[in-house]
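can u do me a favor
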């Protein structure tokens, strides 16, 4: 049994807790928060842009800690699940690794590339797993696309466009704080850069145009340069939509023998075959919004049991996704092609 210590009881912390209840071979045995009401199980004030609303949780049998140092000193904790704001990822993650704990940290891995590098190095030195909860590859439609591309089920990846657009977030003070999250071009767009890095590798260069509010890039469209023979990929991401359309993501992916089309809420995943046939893959019935997170946490738990980093949760892969976000922001602000 892998024993999980959950740190940070905000929206993502609640989602991880709910998801963990369906994970095999693990359970949350301790939580850490500075909020006395949350430690007592009153999570009714938590809300987000998907999933269930907060409720009163039965925390019987779950240890409660107010200080992070006490949690990581607990010998009965195997895995620290870090769901704090991104600005508070590096220090606690490194402390937990040094204390001999495996770590799963919510995306993005960090705000600064130097911090991401320090976290990856700390895991290597400690001989522990640093896993980053980039959930998108566990979402059914994206998992299907990733498998098809990696297995070459429909031939080589030729090109594609991805999008992830939200209205300005207002469901918590932290998520709307660019200093704490990096703004939409990091906190939101890192889903896309992680997936693009996963399916196509690291591009040679990026060119981006977009919108800057204050110091934060709030919307961008990027072209990824892979050189001759490489795929032609683009992505649009940011917080520019009206509240009547609070969230949309999707893709149109061009392969040698098929086109994959998907837009959440409007167009189910569709495979357009070279012979003209149209296929609509089916997936298990919907859940409370935590299904992909359960798969993500299961992968983390299985990694701890096996002592091997799951490739979809790789710290290095998450670090590369952050690099792409920063390079794209640089391109938006400079108006120039940025080399990687």
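np, heres the sequence
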């Amino acid at each position: 049994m892998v024993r999980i210590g959950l740190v940070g009881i905000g929206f993502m912390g609640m989602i991880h807790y709910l998801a963990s209840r369906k994970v095999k071979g693990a359970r949350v045995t301790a939580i850490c928060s500075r909020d006395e009401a949350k430690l007592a199980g009153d999570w009714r004030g938590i809300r987000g842009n998907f999933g269930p609303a907060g409720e009163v949780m039965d925390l019987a049998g779950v240890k409660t800690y107010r200080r992070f140092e006490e949690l990581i000193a607990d010998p009965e904790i195997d895995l620290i699940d870090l769901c704090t704001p991104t600005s508070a990822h590096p220090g606690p993650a490194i402390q937990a690794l040094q204390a001999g704990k495996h770590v799963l940290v919510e995306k993005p891995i960090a705000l600064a590339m130097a911090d991401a590098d320090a976290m990856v190095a700390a895991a290597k030195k400690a001989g522990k797993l640093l896993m980053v909860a980039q959930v998108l590859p566990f979402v059914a439609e994206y998992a299907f696309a990733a498998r098809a591309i990696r297995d070459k089920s429909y031939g080589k990846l030729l090109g594609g466009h991805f999008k992830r657009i939200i209205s300005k977030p207002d469901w918590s003070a932290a998520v709307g704080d660019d200093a704490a999250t990096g703004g939409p071009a990091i906190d939101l767009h890192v889903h896309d850069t992680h997936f693009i890095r996963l399916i196509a590798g690291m591009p040679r260069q990026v060119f981006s145009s977009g919108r800057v509010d204050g110091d934060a890039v709030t919307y961008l469209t990027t072209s990824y340069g892979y050189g001759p023979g490489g795929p032609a990929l683009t992505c649009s991401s940011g917080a520019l939509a009206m509240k009547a359309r609070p969230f949309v993501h999707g893709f149109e992916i061009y392969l040698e023998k098929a086109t994959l089309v998907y837009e959440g809420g409007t167009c189910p995943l569709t495979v357009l075959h070279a012979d003209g046939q149209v296929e609509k893959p089916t997936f298990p019935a919907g859940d409370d919004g935590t299904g992909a997170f359960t798969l993500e946490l299961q992968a983390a738990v299985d990694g701890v049991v096996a002592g091997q980093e799951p490739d979809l949760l790789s710290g290095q892969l998450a670090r590369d996704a952050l690099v792409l976000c920063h390079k794209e922001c640089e391109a938006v602000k400079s108006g120039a092609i940025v080399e990687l």
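Residues 2-133+293-312 form a domain with the Rossmann fold fold (CATH 3.40.50.720). hope that helps!!
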